[in-house]
Design goal:
Length: 327
């Protein structure tokens, strides 16, 4: 048995946001390692792999909301949770701009309530929080390092800055064993948010329709394949268990290949063998022009590196949608 298998075997883990892209892939990997996974589900998402694939039968599903602190305390206590991976969030930037209060409730209040529940639970030994590159806001110097100040301005960005700082506060004040991930834009099979650029482009091409770019195509971002993100969350949890000095610290995870929205769409089109011309709407507002990360700390201190990278990740993602949408 490998060190990873020994660590996760029979470990009781709470995954919030488990019906989402990263949450469903992470949960599946944990199940494959013999982990005892409790998945928090707020809304029933029929197309989510967590709710539709055979392996999901090994997961304990709990209906609830991270904003319900009493429920969080019950879950952590009754299920004797050792590790928490907190992924639950409202993650769509346009939705955050239209609905800031619900975004702040979920992303900020949900974080402090789950952290407070963990503080009251003697069994919790690792807590990994999903922050974001958006927590940095707009910085004059790129790429972002972990020393870049958190200065989110727009609703989604500000919610991630707040949650990130709250986690650091719990670590510093109460010794809560929480560490923080800051990742770029996720992509991979199972993403059902069609407004996102990768699944939206793939679905359009498979339907023979021109893909749509919501922005003017010049916004530059990091993109990280879901398999590499899963490796990041698992690695950080394992290292946190080995070294409590990581509590309160944040780590960037990135393939370190910044791309404009148009360049990413063109890359997807090329890998699908399509000559369709994108429709550029130029409608995106309140978004930062350029954001990308330096992941050298995660490489040096955690031993993490992307296993798949950008192009292999896109090929795997395209293959997933070809199969599923063909059904």
């Amino acid at each position: 048995m490998s060190p990873r298998e020994r660590f996760w075997r029979d470990r009781r883990v709470l995954v919030t946001g488990a019906t989402g892209l990263v949450g469903s892939h992470l949960t599946r990997e944990l199940v494959s390692l013999g982990c005892d996974v409790v998945a928090l589900v707020r809304d029933w998402v029929p197309g989510s792999p967590l709710l539709s694939e055979e392996w999901a039968g090994a997961v304990t599903l709990v209906r609830g909301d991270v904003c319900d602190q009493a429920a969080m305390e019950r879950i952590l206590g009754e299920h004797e949770i050792a590790s928490v991976v907190h992924l639950a969030a409202q993650t769509i930037v346009p939705i955050a701009n239209r609905n800031p209060v619900s975004t702040f409730e979920t992303n900020v209040a949900g974080t402090w309530r789950l952290l407070e529940a963990a503080r009251r639970s003697p069994k919790v030994s690792e807590f990994v929080l999903a922050s974001s590159d958006k927590a940095y806001g707009q910085a004059a110097v790129l790429p972002y390092t972990e020393e870049t100040p958190l200065a989110g301005l727009y609703p989604y960005d500000a919610s991630k800055s707040c949650a990130d700082l709250i986690a650091q506060s719990y670590a510093a004040t109460y010794g809560t064993p929480v560490a923080i991930t800051r990742c770029g834009n996720f992509f991979g099979g199972g993403d059902l948010n069609w407004s996102r650029i990768v699944p939206g482009t793939i679905r359009s091409v498979l339907a023979g329709e021109r893909p749509v770019i919501r922005s003017d195509g010049t916004l530059v971002r990091d993109y990280i394949y879901v398999g590499d993100a899963v490796e990041a969350y698992m690695t950080l949890t394992e290292r946190l268990a080995e070294n409590r000095a990581l509590a309160g610290r944040a780590f960037n995870f990135s393939t370190e290949i910044p791309l404009s929205a148009r360049a990413l769409v063109d890359l997807v089109l090329a890998r699908m063998g399509s000559d369709l011309e994108p429709i550029v709407l130029g409608e995106a507002t309140h978004e930062i022009a350029e954001q990308y990360l330096d992941a050298s700390r995660a490489r040096a201190e955690l031993g993490w590196a992307p296993r798949y990278g950008l192009e292999e990740g896109l090929d795997r993602t395209i293959a997933w949608y070809r199969e599923r949408l063909a059904r």
